[in-house]
Amino acid sequence: MKNKGRLKRRITRVFLRPESAVFALYGLVTIVFTYPAITLLHRTYAEKRDPLGALWSFWWFRYAFGHGLPLSNCTMVAVPFGWKQTIFGTNPLTSLITVPLSIVAGETVAYNVILLLSFFLTAVAMYFFARRLTGSRAAAAFAGFAFAFCPFMLAQGKEHIGLLSAFWLPLFALFLVKALEKPGLRPVVWCAAILVLTWLYNLQYGMMAALFAIVFVPVVLLVRRARSGRREGGRGRLVTVAVVCLVLVALAGLALVALRMPRVERREMSALYQYSARPWEYVLPSAESTLFGGRTRGFLTGNMHGSYTGESSLFLGYVPLLLSGVALWGAAAAGKKRRANGPPGDEEPHAGEGGDTERIEGAEDGQGNGIGGFDRRAGSLPYVVGLLATGAVAFVVSMPPTATVLRIKLYFPSWLLYKVVPQFRAYSRFGVLVMFCVAALAACGVSFLLENRRLARHAVLVTTVLCVLVLAEFAIVPPFYSLDTSKTTDYYYWLAEQPGKPAAAIYPMYMRDEFNTYGYLFFQRLHEKSLLDGYGPEGDGESYRQVMLDITDPDTPGILRLLGADYVMILKASYELPQGPSANYKFPVAYADLKLPAGLEKVASFPACDVFRVTAPKADFVARFLDAPWQPFTDPVGAVWHPGLQREELVVDSHLDEPVERSISFKAVAPAGSGELVVSLNGKVVGTVRLGAMPVEVVVENASLRPGENSLVLQTDAAAAPLPDVSGFEKVPLNMVVSNVHVD
Predict the structure, then answer these.
(1) Number of other residues whose CB lies within 10 A of the CB of residue 10
(2) Do residues 414 and 399 make contact, with C-beta atoms less than 8 angstroms apart?
(3) pTM for the whole thing?
(4) Of 286, 309, 276, 451, which is closest to residue 370 (Cα–Cα)?
(5) What confidence tens digit (pLDDT) does each residue in 261-288 have?
(6) What's the fold here for domain 621-743?
(7) What are the extents of the domains in the chain?
(8) Apex 657 CA angle, 653 and 662, nearest 5
(9) Is the pLDDT reported for residue 398 higher than 90?
(10) How far apart are CA 398 and CA 394, in angstroms?
(11) Handedness of CA 530, 534, 535, 539 (dihedral sign)
(12) CA–CA distance, 444 with 450 (Å, rounded to integer)
C-alpha cells in the first residue's frame, strides 16, 4: 500500500509540473495542425507527392517480411531488375525504427506515428534547450511552439517525413551548451554521442549539427575571451579540440556515405539553383499561410525559381524576429552594464546543472520559480552572438551556388559542397537551422521582456499571447492536407482482380524520383501486382526505360515483352496535360492522336485509363544509350529525342544466337545548324552523314551484329547550341540530338 501511495504521489507531481501543461498544448497543436494524422488507420497529413513513395516504402517492408522476401531488394518494381532498398544506408537509425513499426502496425499507422511524434519531440527538445539557455519556462514554452510549428516544419510535414526529425538540433545544442558550461570529459562524450546519433538518424541534420558546432563553439569562446580579457582555461581548449575532432569524424562519415551513393547526372547542378533559398523567402509569410498567404502567394509562386512551396517555406516569423531583436538589445545592454560594474577579469557565472539561473526580483510565478530568469550576469552575450553568427552562416549556406551582384559573380558554400557531395541538392533546407537560431534568440527576447516587473506579473498571459501570435502567423490550416490511403481507382481494382502474377507497365513512364512514379507505386500497395515502372540509375533498367518512353514507337511493345510486361496501362489525362517539371514528357499530346503500334491489344477501358495486353514477341534487338549526359525528352508528337555531346556511346543488344546482318536507322539533328556525324560499330566506321538544323535520316545498311552486346558510337564535330523551344534545355549547349535507334 505504501508503494502504491508513493507511486501515486510521483505521478501526481509529474502531471502537476508546469511542463506538463505546456507539453499537453504541444500535443494538442500537433494534432490540430497535422489532422487527420491522429486518425492513424486510413488517412494522413500529406500531399500527393513524395509521401506516396514513403508510404509505398513502408508497405514494402511489411509485404516483403510477410512473404519471405528480402527487404533490401524489391523485385515487384522496375521488373525484371528490381529496386535495391538501402535500408541501412544513409539513415540506418531511422530504418531501425520505421521498418519494425511498419511490419507490426502497417504503413499508414507507422507513417502517422512518426509524423506526430516528430512534431511533438521537436517542440519538447526545443523547450529543454531554451530552458537551459534562459532558465525561463515561459521563454522555453514559446521557443517550442516557434520552432516545432514553423512554416518549414509544417510544409515539410506534408512533403518529406524524414525532414521532421528536427528535434536532433535542439537536443545536440543542449548537450553542446552543457559541454561549454561544465568542466570534465563526460559532457563532451555525451555531446559526441548525440552528434553520432543525429548523423545515423538523418544525414542532413547531421550536417546541420556539425555546422552548428563549427560556428557556435568558437564564437562563444571568442566572445567570452574578449569580455574576460584572458584566454580560456583547459576546459575551453578541451571543448574546442573535441568539437574539431567531432566535425572531422562527421566529414569523414559524409565522404564515405557519398562514395556509396549512386552516381549523379550532370543536370543536378541546375537543381542547386532550384532547391536553394532566396532572401525574401525568410521574411515573407509562406504562400500557404492562413493569415498572409493571400498577400504573398502571387509574388512567391511567381518567383519560385523552379522549386515548390515545400522547399521555399522558410518564413522566420515577425514575432520571433522582433523578439530576437529584443534579445540582441538586452544582451548588449547587459554587456555594457557588466563592464561598468565589474572588473574585466572576473569569472562569469554560468547556468547551473538544473538549467535555472539566478532569479531576478519581480520575475516569479505563483510558485516562486524564476520564469523570467535569463540572468544578464550569467553570460547572455556569448550565446546570443553565437546563435546570431550560426544563423547567419546557415543563411549563406542555404543560398544558390552563385549569384551576380554589380556584374561580379559571387560563389556561395553550396557551390563548393556540391563538388564534394553532389548527392545533396536542396540547400534551402539549411533554413531550418536559421529558424532554430531565431527561435532560440526569440526565447532570450521573451526572457528579457519578462524581467520587466509589470510584464512579469502577467507572465502567463504575456507568454500565451506571444504563442498564439506566432502560431497564427505560421499556421497553414485550414484547409487540412488529407490523403486517403485506403482508396483505389477502377483500373487498379481491375488489375488487382487479374489471376496469377502479371506485370504491368504504366504510361507515361516517368523517372523513378518523379511524383507520378510515386503515385504508381502508392497504388501497388492495393493491387499487389508487379510493375515495370520505377527504374533507377543502378543497373541497366534506366537505359531500357529511356528508349521505351514513347508508347507509339514500333519497337516499344517488343521491348516491354522482353522485360516481362503482360499489360500496358495508359493514363489518358497524363498525356494531355502539361508535364511541368517532368524530365521526359515536355509537351502535352492528345491521347486520341497517339498512334499505337502493333503488338498491343486493348482488353479494358475506363474513363481515365485504357488497358492493353502485350501480344508482341520479345524484341531481338535493343539499342540503349550508355551514361547519357541528360534525360531524353518527347517532342510535340510524342517521339523521343536524346540530347548529346560530341560523342555518345550506345550498346546494341542482340538476343539472337548467331551473328546477323541488319540495317540500323535513326534520326539526328545538329542544334547549331550543321556538322558531320561519324557512326562506328564495334570499333569500325560504318557511315558518315552531314547533319543540319532539321532531322536527318541516318541508315547503316548490312550492319554486322554479333550475339550479345555490340558497341555503337556516334561522334560529331558540330558546334554546341541550346534548344530554345524545349523546357530545361534553353541554355544547355548540345552538339547533337538523336532519336531512338532501330534495328530492322
Answers:
(1) 10
(2) yes
(3) 0.87
(4) 451
(5) 444 444 456 778 888 999 999 999 988 8
(6) Jelly Rolls (2.60.120)
(7) 117-474, 492-614, 621-743
(8) 55
(9) yes
(10) 6
(11) negative
(12) 10
